[in-house]
Amino acid sequence: MAFALSGCGLVHANGHRALEQVTLSAAQGERLAVIGASGAGKTTLLRVLGASIKPDEGEVALLGSAPWRLASNALKQLRARIGTIHQQPPIPPRLRVVTAVLAGRLGLWPRWRALASLVYPADMAGAHAALAQLGLADRLFDRCDRLSGGQLQRVGIARVLYQQPALMLADEPVSSLDPTLADQTLAALVAASERDGATLVASLHAVDLALKWFPRIVGMRSGRVVFDLPASSVTPEMLSALYASEGGVPPVHGIALHADDAPVVSAALQPARL
Predict the structure, then answer these.
(1) Which pLDDT score is estimated for 106?
(2) Is 216 among the domain residues?
């Protein structure tokens, strides 16, 4: 298994229960999208899968290990095998794009190589190849503070592509991209996961993209998993119930349609035949 959660629960410091009895697992190489309205617990779930937060209840297994039973060095090595794509990448603005991408393997390199790469990029060809998959090969030596929000988001994705992790976690990875770029970027992520045999878990706001690119859909509401189904089994009625707090109409390409657009919604949410 790539991961297995059993009965996981988590309460934030402010008293908000973010996860409630979540049981979820995936085999190595699976692709699944996590969908649900804002505040459903999607980001918290990904943080648990990334071993960045420990749940208050339940058991977690990641890539064959129980992360919270590991010594600190072993936990660091485990985290180096997990790549996380953030909605807003935590990249220092003055950093060069090439250095930001190469940072994907800092956890795998010896300390001397990681420090040397900050002075002179250790693998410019590898960084260039990762950026090329996302249409950013010409921005290799640009400073990150000169990029648009969408370009910076793709640099964060390129960093994970360069990392080649066993488990890829993507938190709203295309939120800053237009529909065409969003589709192309998800295609690159899927191709990388298939090529490397990596498990890919993405939280997505745009339900049509989730149904198109992911064979398995996990619906969350109020910190709970309410369904876990093949994309072909997810019906418009299920989605309407999942997004009841947002008017019952699921967002498409990041834009929530109005209730009187029901026929358009139904057509847009049909899984693509690839």
Answers:
(1) 77
(2) yes
Question: Rounded distance, CA 236 to CA 231, Å?
Answer: 11
Indicate whether 221 belongs to any domain. yes
CATH number of the domain enclosing 23: 3.40.50.300
C-alpha 17/C-alpha 1 separation (Å) is: 27
pTM of the predicted protein model: 0.89
Q: How confident is the model at residue 242 (pLDDT cuts 50, 70, 90)?
A: very high
Would residue 182 count as lying in a domain? no
pLDDT of residue 247: 86
Residue with tokens 């890919």: 200
162 within domain boundaries = no
Among candidate residues 165, 162, 182, the one with its CA nearest the CA of residue 174: 182
Q: What is the tally of structural domains in the chain?
A: 1
- 181 vs 55, 174, 261, 274, CA distance in Å? 35, 8, 24, 18
CA distance 117 to 111: 10
pLDDT digits 0-9 by tens, 47-102:
999 999 999 999 999 999 999 999 999 999 999 999 999 988 889 889 999 999 99
